[in-house]
Design a protein that fits this description.
The complex is a heterodimer of chains A (about 190) and B (about 600). Chain A is built from 5 helices and 9 strands, in the order E-H-E-E-H-E-E-H-E-E-H-E-E-H. Chain A is α+β, with helices and mostly antiparallel strands and about 190 residues long. Chain A folds into 2 domains: about 5-80 and about 160-185, ACT domain (Alpha-Beta Plaits), CATH 3.30.70.260; about 85-150, 2-Layer Sandwich (Alpha-Beta Plaits), CATH 3.30.70.1150. In chain A, the strands form 2 sheets. In chain A, strands 5, 6, 7, 8 and 9 form a 5-stranded antiparallel sheet that branches. Chain A has a 4-stranded antiparallel sheet with strand order 2-3-1-4. In chain A, a hairpin with a 2-residue loop joins strand 6 (about 115-120) and strand 7. Chain A is elongated, with a radius of gyration of 20 Å. By secondary structure, chain B is α/β, with parallel strands linked by helices. Chain B has 3 domains: about 5-195, Rossmann fold (3-Layer(aba) Sandwich); about 215-370, TPP-binding domain (Rossmann fold), CATH 3.40.50.1220; about 380-565, Rossmann fold (3-Layer(aba) Sandwich), CATH 3.40.50. In chain B, the strands form 4 sheets. Chain B has a 6-stranded parallel sheet, sandwiched between helices. In chain B, strands 11-10-9-12-13-14 form a 6-stranded parallel sheet, with helices on both faces. In chain B, strands 16-15-17-18-20-19 form a 6-stranded parallel sheet, sandwiched between helices. The radius of gyration of chain B is 24 Å and the shape is globular. Classes of the chains: A alpha+beta (about 190), B alpha/beta (about 600). The interface of A and B includes residues 27, 173, 177 and 180 of A. Bound molecules: thiamine diphosphate (TPP) and magnesium ion. The site of thiamine diphosphate has 19 residues of chain B, from helix 18, helix 20 and helix 22.
């Protein structure tokens, strides 16, 4: 059964790394639902969050192909772990005087903050799951959404450990005991 | 039966990367170009294949002062492919170089070839000067971008002091784990800039840790599956040679008693004249081999990647079998074929661990059944066709003349498959063919690379009249280097393999496959080499004997039946069991 998998990919912070990842995904016809890249807690290491829709074995293949890129240090599938998966959205919504109160009320329901206002519009910032943001947007649509930007999902496992505890290589592929895991740099 | 003594790729390649005395230029301040040459020498490189141009003029300025033998090809693609063949026969990393822009793009097919066949290769390209990068400068192309999906890794070097560590890492990546091509792009001004030369002793990357030693739990599961099987079969691939595991593999086969089928690139990893060697599988595999695949209850794939030309339609491939898959690349496990027991590791290490765990057995009934599936009629008929030089007879005659000891490179097409089917490979690293990419033009440059890599061995290349016309300019290179290579042109006047598909699957619609060519004998003479024409069966063996007696390149033009087909052939999209076989009662020779 196809489902959306959230992959956390730790990569060396070099020029061209994003290109390598995306190029591999395209060439192998893997579908990227969303991708985000930013710094991680460690200097020199960037963290990507990839949302990939596919059968489990297909997604396992994504992980293995990612590992073939020299810059990829660790791939973790957060799908069967308790995790926080959020995105951020900025919404510029038309807000005539007579609608303003209603819009603010909706924003309140969804914990969205007002970060800019003009006589005719409001910019709201919302974070949370895709579903939550979808729901907020559905409520706002009637007022007129002038501009919208969504970051795509970023994710992190719940609990106290600082780094993903389990990489993808042990899944079912018989990789040697000592290989790849644990990656020293990432376990402290 | 002869067991292998030949060099083995990864093992040798890695050994070659080991400790060696420091380069005499160590500690000196050198130009980037000199550093490049010294780094190659520090890797033990002796021969490079290349072609100069603007961006690499500084590099070519430094070449004569180095100890490197540069082979000037006539087209950069053939430099990459000659280096590829050089790597295959020596087990060391092949090296090619080209200028920026068109020089670099001409390497692309060769890199793709090495990528698909897992051949260790390092390509050095010149790039326009750093201030010009991104401005569409003269002869600027984004070669690292272009080669991203067809290299194991690539680099754009930014500083002269980075050249040595980058080349170190490039060789390490090319040769280790699953080998492959690595490209190092160096801007012209970086070739000119100066830096102190220190060649690092080791290379390491956090994100690159190939798993060579297998998980013992998986090895035990594999052994259990093998010991339970009644009709097991081994699928032997290129990985066995890449791992330097041919001796270990022979021991495994001898002990387990399991019959062996070969992928196209696996040929030679175990002697074909051994009673347990069944021959090539797949699209042009022997009848009894594909029959065995249909019947087997356990397929033990060692070092092959379940290429579609080997498996045919997946749903019809090994319908009754469980699968043990040994591969150094975890991504190959389960990629094309569902695997019951995956074992990730280097074939040598896996075999060392696995062999003692498998029972010593013989499968008399099973092997007897397989032998019963042999197409005896085909062989009998092939032995007895005196009219035209029959492809089978040509291949057999070359094999006989060289006692099966020669290196045989091929081009791509029917002649390639006839050679794979009939040469009889008893040694590793002597069968040099473009498997994954099927690169026409490979044959002659491959022979050049092979001869330079193994001057001690007799070298033949079997080419079609189509593919030969793609790369015959390399006769000039062969002549210039005075290489003792024999070119057997299997001349059917057609792009034969395509014609065969049109014949069998497109109602004989021969669209653009009739191909004229020069008089290959005169052409050879124009290049200052010997040309021989063979039009009858009786002339085959004398011509081969004459070619072998002549030092230097020889071209033999074997004029064959134009519409001879390769059989068996599995129709595209069909199962291996649905192969078409040769019928002798019609005009089809
Ligand atoms: C560069 C390249 N172009 C096209 C093909 C497709 N192709 C495969 S075999 C073949 C015919 C080869 O003809 P020839 O070299 O005469 O060999 P023959 O099959 O006749 O033995 C062609 C065109 C290819 N493999 N490589
Ligand atoms: Mg031909």
């Amino acid at each position: 059964m196809k489902s959306a998998h959230t992959l956390v990919v730790l990569v060396e912070d070099h020029p061209g790394v994003l290109n390598r990842v995306v190029s591999m995904m395209r060439r192998r016809s893997f579908n990227i639902d969303s991708i985000t890249v930013g710094h991680s807690e460690q200097p020199g290491i960037s963290r990507m969050t990839l949302v990939v829709v596919g059968e489990d074995d297909e997604v396992e293949q994504v992980g293995k192909q990612l590992y073939k890129l020299m810059e990829v240090l660790k791939v973790t599938d957060l799908s069967d772990q308790a995790c926080i998966a959020h995105e951020l959205a900025l919404v510029k919504v038309a807000a005539k005087a007579q609608h303003r109160a209603e819009i603010l009320q909706i924003a309140g329901i969804y914990d969205a903050r007002v970060i800019d206002a003009t006589p005719a519009s409001l910019v709201l910032e919302a974070t949370g799951s895709e579903q939550k943001i979808d729901a907020l947007l559905a409520m706002l649509r009637g007022f007129g959404i002038r501009e919208l930007v969504r970051t795509g999902r970023i994710a992190m496992a719940r609990g106290g450990t600082a780094a993903p505890t389990k990489g993808m290589t042990t899944v079912s592929n018989g990789v040697g005991d000592g290989a790849r895991e644990p990656l020293v740099a990432l376990t402290n | 039966m002869v067991l292998a003594d030949a060099p083995n790729m990864t093992a040798t390649a890695l050994a070659a990367l080991g400790e060696r005395p420091p380069h005499p230029w160590t500690g000196q301040t050198l130009s980037g170009a000199q550093i490049t040459c010294a780094s190659l020498e520090a890797e033990g490189v002796t021969t490079v294949f290349g072609y100069p141009g603007g961006a690499v003029i500084p590099l070519y300025d430094a070449l004569p002062g180095s100890g490197l033998h540069h082979v000037l090809v006539r087209f950069e693609q053939w430099a990459a492919l000659a280096a590829d063949a050089y790597a295959r026969v020596t087990g060391r990393v092949g090296v090619c170089m080209a200028t920026s822009g068109p020089g670099a793009t001409n390497l692309v097919t060769g890199l793709a070839n090495a990528h698909l066949d897992s051949v260790p290769l390092v390509a050095i390209t010149g790039q326009v000067g750093q201030p010009m990068i991104g401005r569409d400068a003269f002869q600027e192309v984004d070669i690292t971008g272009i080669t991203l999906p067809i290299t194991k890794h690539n680099y754009l070097v930014q500083r002269a002091e980075d050249i040595a560590p980058t080349i170190k890492e490039a060789f390490y990546l090319a040769a280790s784990g699953r080998p492959g091509p690595v490209l190092v792009d160096i801007p012209k001004n970086v070739f000119v800039a100066k830096a102190p030369f220190h060649y690092p002793a080791t290379a390491r990357r956090a994100g690159y840790q190939p798993s060579t030693s297998p998980n013992m739990r998986q090895v035990k599961l594999a052994a259990e599956a093998i010991n339970r099987a009644e009709k097991p079969l081994i699928m032997a691939g290129h990985g066995i040679m890449l791992a330097g595991a041919t001796d270990l593999f022979a021991r495994f086969v001898e002990r387990s008693g399991i019959p062996v089928v070969f992928t196209l690139l696996g040929l030679g990893c175990f002697p074909e004249d051994h009673p347990l060697a069944l021959g090539m599988m797949g699209m042009h595999g022997h009848r009894h081999v594909n029959a065995a695949l249909s019947e087997t209850d356990l397929l033990v794939n060692i070092g092959a990647r379940f290429d579609d030309r080997a498996t045919g339609k997946i749903s019809g491939f090994i319908p009754q079998a469980k699968v043990v898959h040994v591969d150094i690349d975890p991504a190959e496990i389960g990629k094309n074929v569902k695997t019951d027991v995956p074992v990730v590791g280097d074939a040598a290490e896996v075999l060392k661990a696995l062999t003692p765990l498998v029972a010593a057995r013989r499968y008399g009934q099973w092997t007897g059944w397989i032998e019963g599936q042999r197409d005896e009629a085909l062989l009998a008929a092939l032995e007895d066709r005196p009219n035209h030089p029959e492809p089978y007879t040509i291949i057999k005659a070359i094999s006989d003349a060289s006692d099966g000891e020669a290196i045989v490179a091929t081009d791509v097409g029917q002649h390639q498959m006839w050679t794979a089917q009939h040469f009889g490979f008893n040694h590793p690293d002597r069968w040099i063919t473009s498997g994954g990419l099927g690169t026409m033009g490979y044959g002659l440059p491959a022979a050049i690379g092979a001869k330079l890599g193994r001057p001690d061995l007799e070298v033949w290349t079997v080419v079609g009249d189509g593919g030969f016309q793609m790369s015959l300019n390399e006769l000039a290179t062969a002549a210039q280097e005075n290489l003792d290579i024999n070119v057997a042109v299997v001349n059917n006047g057609y792009l034969g393999m395509v014609r065969q598909w049109q014949d069998l699957f497109h109602a004989k619609n021969y669209s653009e496959v009739e191909i004229s060519g020069p008089d290959f004998v005169k052409l050879a003479e124009a290049y200052g080499v010997t040309g021989i024409r063979v039009k009858t069966d009786a002339e085959i063996r004398p011509a081969i004997a004459r070619a072998r007696s002549i030092k230097g390149p020889v071209v033999i033009d074997f004029v064959i039946e134009p519409e001879a087909n390769v059989y068996p052939i599995v129709p595209p999209g069909a199962s291996n069991s649905d192969a078409l076989h040769r019928a002798f009662d019609d005009t089809d020779v």
